[in-house]
C-alpha cells in the first residue's frame, strides 16, 4: 500500500531543498491544489493505484541520481536542481487526467458479478505527453534547453511521435545526454521498481 502522506512530504522536501529557481513556489502551489499526490501513474500499466503518480516521480528521481553517477561519477555536469526538476516533474502532464468509473467484474471466488472501480483517461489539454509536461513547466519557470529536451523526450521510443516515424528523439538523445538519462531512469522505475506491483 502506498503511503501517500509520506511520499507527499518527501516530494515537497526534495523540491523545496533542491530547486531554488524563480517559479518553483507557484509550481508547487499548483501541484498541491491538484490531484498529483492522489492520482495513479497510469490506468493499468504501472502503479495504477491511488498515489501512484507521486510514487513513480520519486522512483524516477532516485533512478536519475543513480544514472548520473553511473555515467559521470561524482563529477556530474548536472546540478542537483536540474536532476530534481526534470525527474520530479516529468509527468505533470498526468495531472487531472485520470477519472474513476465503475464496471462489472465477475468475482473468481463467488462467481457473482460485482461493481469495481477502474481508472479512465480524459485529457482536457491533449498536447501530447512530453510536450504537455514541458509546456506546463515552461509556464511556471525557465527551463534550460537540455532540461526541456529531457522532459520532452522522456518517453523515448514509446513516444507517439517516434512510433509515427519521427527521428527527432534519436537526435535529441545524441545532443542532450540528460534526455537519455531521464528516459533510462523512467524506464527502469517503471519496469523494475513498479513492474507488476500495485502500490509497492
Q: What's this model, at a glance?
A:
By secondary structure, this protein is mainly alpha-helical. The protein has helices at 4-18, 24-33, 52-72, 80-88, 130-140, 145-152, 160-163, 168-175, 177-193; strands at 98-106, 113-121.
Secondary-structure map:
Blueprint: H1 4-18, H2 24-33, H3 52-72, H4 80-88, E1 98-106, E2 113-121, H5 130-140, H6 145-152, H7 160-163, H8 168-175, H9 177-193
The main β sheet shows up as: 2 strands, antiparallel
Structural class: mainly alpha
Strand content: 5-15%
Count helical runs: 9
- How much helical structure, as a percent, in the residues? 40-55%
- What would the average pLDDT be, to the nearest integer? 92
> Low-confidence segments, ≥5 residues, pLDDT <50?
none
DSSP summary, beta strand count: 2
Task: Note down, in words, how this protein is organized.
- With 200 residues, the protein is mainly alpha-helical.
- Helix content is 52%, strand content 9%.
- The chain contains 9 helices and 2 strands, in the order ααααββααααα.
- It has helices at residues 4-18, 24-33, 52-72, 80-88, 130-140, 145-152, 160-163, 168-175, 177-193; strands at 98-106, 113-121.
- A two-stranded antiparallel sheet has the order 1-2.
- Strand 1 (98-106) and strand 2 form a beta hairpin.
- Helix 1 (4-18) packs antiparallel against helix 4 and helix 5 runs antiparallel to helix 6.
- The radius of gyration is 17 Å and the shape is globular.
Amino acid at each position: 500500500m502506498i503511503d501517500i502522506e509520506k511520499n507527499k512530504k518527501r516530494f515537497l522536501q526534495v523540491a523545496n531543498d533542491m530547486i531554488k529557481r524563480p517559479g518553483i513556489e507557484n509550481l508547487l502551489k499548483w501541484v498541491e491544489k491538484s490531484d498529483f499526490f492522489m492520482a495513479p501513474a497510469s490506468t493499468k500499466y504501472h502503479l495504477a493505484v491511488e498515489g501512484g503518480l507521486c510514487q513513480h516521480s520519486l522512483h524516477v528521481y532516485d533512478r536519475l541520481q543513480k544514472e548520473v553517477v553511473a555515467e559521470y561519477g561524482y563529477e556530474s555536469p548536472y546540478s542537483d536542481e536540474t536532476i530534481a526538476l526534470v525527474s520530479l516533474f516529468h509527468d505533470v502532464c498526468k495531472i487531472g487526467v485520470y477519472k474513476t468509473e465503475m464496471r462489472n467484474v465477475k468475482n473468481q471466488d463467488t462467481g457473482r458479478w460485482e461493481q469495481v472501480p477502474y481508472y479512465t483517461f480524459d485529457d482536457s489539454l491533449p498536447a501530447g505527453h512530453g510536450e504537455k509536461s514541458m509546456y506546463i513547466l515552461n509556464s511556471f519557470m525557465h527551463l534550460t534547453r537540455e532540461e526541456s529536451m529531457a522532459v520532452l523526450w522522456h518517453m523515448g521510443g514509446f513516444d507517439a511521435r517516434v512510433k509515427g516515424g519521427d527521428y527527432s528523439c534519436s537526435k535529441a538523445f545524441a545532443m542532450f545526454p540528460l534526455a537519455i538519462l531521464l528516459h533510462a531512469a523512467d524506464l527502469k522505475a517503471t519496469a523494475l521498481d513498479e513492474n507488476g506491483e500495485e502500490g509497492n
